Amino acid sequence: MAQKVAMDIPDGSYVNLGIGIPEMVAGHVPEGREVIYHTENGLLGMGPNPAEGKEDPELINAGKKYVTAIPGACFFHHADSFTMIRGKHIDVCVLGAMQVAENGSLANWSTGAKNAIPAVGGAMDLVAGVKTIYVITQHVTKHGDAKIVKECTYPLTGKQVVDRIYTNLAILDVKEDGLYVKEMAPGVNFEYLQSVTEAELHQ
Amino acid sequence: MINKIINSTDRAVAGIFDGATVMIGGFGEAGSPIELIHALIDHGAKDLTVVSNNTGSGHVGLAALIENRQVKKMICSFPRTANSTVFPELYNAGEIELELVPQGTLAERIRAGGAGIPAFYTPSSVHTPLAEGKEIREFNGETYVMEYGIRADFSLVKCLHADRYGNLVYNKTARNFGPIMCTAAETTIVQAKKLVELGEINPEHVVTPGIFVNKVVEVTDPQEESKLVREERRYPW
Q1: Residues A150 and A199: beta-carbon distance below 8 Å
Q2: Average pLDDT over residues B222-229
Q3: What is the pLDDT of residue A96?
């Protein structure tokens, strides 16, 4: 999945990667492309994880993991960082999802459960401001429930914000009139894909 | 003569009063002014409203301030993190209030507060539960929610270098909320890893102009929060 996403990020893009699977996209950028990674805690030009023993607790990413800064990187404060995000300066954001609806609405911050501690971070700002939103997710939950749904039952992160969904089974484009199958994984056919997808799929 | 240098963290936080709103810099441990927070625990001011991105981890720093029951309300974007147990337990027991704010909205509310702007409209959180009850308005066909600027009585911030005028330079991603929090408080208190002479910081490289800073205290060898958490340390020691 991470490799497929990386193939779709054009040379010269400014990209924000969400926490978790999205972070893996950085490892799959094709040779010859230059992509600059933004992390919302104040770094443009985020590099790979540091070698053991070289970790710096004051050089971390949004997931609070140790990172490095590439030559040409810059640091800035939070208001500047979200100026880049909300001001539509970041080209692509890759996020995880709990649910994506067929109209592109995304839920990825809260299950709404009573005892859950609500935590949102920068997700609502990213979907509100970044030009292209890619979601990377397993096609169904650990319990086999659909994640690609007609309407999100969890609280929304943003309404009609997702442009493309990358799952372990398929790549889906979000268009005005619904979800279109762009590509299926080897061994997956349309009937099977539809059977594990609550939202209606178009070919 | 202007000299904002204070010779101890205890003296630096001595004016913080019960019921104050306190902004605390940091994103996780990066930029968290742990020695100033520990001085605030020793000082004992209570019923505080704290504005900070997270709620601390383990039993040191911000988590220890909360555990010591000095905080009645947190305004933050991400109140749970790995090794964060103090806030979740008090929150689930109904013993601490939470105002959850998207991270960019939190940053802009602080920036606006510091810039004398009482409110603004943002696209973040529109059509989500975090916009419920707030004013919604359309501009150029797009929908926005109104958010208020935040000001504080005190800000506690960590930086790398400071001079006696209060000019500051930060270290890498420890900068995060520091520069905007310095602008938004009546009294901004900074811990610097190193004090330098006037002129040693190139004027082109000053990140926070000294006008936004009131007190500076040197902490040459600050504690690393993650190390203290790994060692299961608790404050007060």
Answers
A1: yes
A2: 96
A3: 95
Asked whether this complex has an ipTM greater than 0.90, the answer is yes
Residue of A40, A52, A55, A191 marked catalytic: A40
* Residue B69 DSSP SS3: coil
CB B70 within 8 A of CB B43: no
Which CATH superfamily includes the segment(s) B18-100+151-223?
A: Glutaconate Coenzyme A-transferase (3.40.1080.10)
Confidence of residue A178 (pLDDT cuts 50, 70, 90): very high
Closest CA of chain B from A78, distance in Å: 5
CB contact under 8 A, A128 and B87: no
Residue A22 pLDDT exceeds 90: no
Q: What would the mean pLDDT of A53-62 be, rounded to a whole number?
A: 95
Q: Cis bond leading into B236, ω under 30°?
A: yes
Annotated domain spans of chain B: 18-100+151-223
Check whether B187 has a pLDDT greater than 90.
yes
Name residue A50's amino acid.
Answer: P
- Does B80 have pLDDT greater than 90? no
Query: Residue A37: what residue type?
Result: Y
Domains in chain A (CATH in brackets) are 2-202 (3.40.1080.10)
From the candidates A39, A41, A66, A80, which should be mutated to test the interface with B, based on the most B CB atoms within 10 A?
A: A41
**A40 assigned to active site:** yes
B172: nearest CB among A75, A79, A124: A75
Strand-pairing partners, residue A100, are A106, A148
pLDDT digits (tens, 9 = 90+) for B111-149: 999 999 999 999 999 999 999 999 999 999 999 999 999
Provide DSSP, B149-212: ---EEEEEEEEEEE-TT--EE--GGG-TTHHHHHHSEEEEEEEEEEE--TTSS-GGG-SB-GGG
Q: Does A63 touch chain B (CB under 8 A)?
A: no
pTM: 0.96
Per-residue pLDDT reduced to its tens digit, B27-71? 999 999 999 999 999 999 999 999 999 999 999 999 999 999 999
Distances (CA, A) of A197 to A100, A154, A168: 11, 17, 13
- A–B: how many Cβ contacts below 8 A? 143
Cβ-based contacts of A64 with chain B (< 8 Å): 27-30, 81-82
B125/A contact by beta carbon, under 8 A? yes
What the block records as the tokens of B183 is: 């602008």
- Asked if the model's pLDDT at residue B184 lies above 90, the reply is yes
Residue of chain A minimizing CA distance to B175: A77
